[in-house]
Amino acid sequence: MTATDQALDALALAARAADSKGGDDLVALDVSGPLPFTDVFLLVSGNSERNVIAIADEIEDTLREAGVSTLRREGHSTGRWILLDFGDLVVHVFHPEDRLYYGLERLWLDCPAVPVAPLLAG
């Protein structure tokens, strides 16, 4: 399977929103093969707890304005690892230490990467 156009459109919006708030090391993975409930993971790092929260808030606001509802949000109060579930897209915004510790890139190594740089330019 491959990610749907709807998931890729949401990914582009989320990536641009994260980038606008200083999100670092954006990585998108097509997880539609092994996971039946979502198509794409977007992993983003913020440089502090405040920055992690600001990035997550901007992503949520941007997608809401585009008509994409947040189905679930976890971790917002701590600003260490915020998970935003939009259905076809799940965004993980990490503090760098937590991203390294949990290593989602290693866990989903078999999933194809979705190039993020072209999304930022578009």
TrEMBL record:
<dbReference type="GO" id="GO:0017148">
    <property type="term" value="P:negative regulation of translation"/>
</dbReference>
<keyword id="KW-0963">Cytoplasm</keyword>
<dbReference type="InterPro" id="IPR004394">
    <property type="entry name" value="Iojap/RsfS/C7orf30"/>
</dbReference>
<dbReference type="Pfam" id="PF02410">
    <property type="entry name" value="RsfS"/>
</dbReference>
<keyword id="KW-0678">Repressor</keyword>
<dbReference type="InterPro" id="IPR043519">
    <property type="entry name" value="NT_sf"/>
</dbReference>
<comment type="similarity">
    <text>Belongs to the Iojap/RsfS family.</text>
</comment>
<dbReference type="GO" id="GO:0090071">
    <property type="term" value="P:negative regulation of ribosome biogenesis"/>
</dbReference>
<dbReference type="GO" id="GO:0005737">
    <property type="term" value="C:cytoplasm"/>
</dbReference>
<comment type="function">
    <text>Functions as a ribosomal silencing factor. Interacts with ribosomal protein uL14 (rplN), blocking formation of intersubunit bridge B8. Prevents association of the 30S and 50S ribosomal subunits and the formation of functional ribosomes, thus repressing translation.</text>
</comment>
<dbReference type="GO" id="GO:0042256">
    <property type="term" value="P:cytosolic ribosome assembly"/>
</dbReference>
<dbReference type="GO" id="GO:0043023">
    <property type="term" value="F:ribosomal large subunit binding"/>
</dbReference>
<comment type="subunit">
    <text>Interacts with ribosomal protein uL14 (rplN).</text>
</comment>
<keyword id="KW-0810">Translation regulation</keyword>
<protein>
    <recommendedName>
        <fullName>Ribosomal silencing factor RsfS</fullName>
    </recommendedName>
</protein>
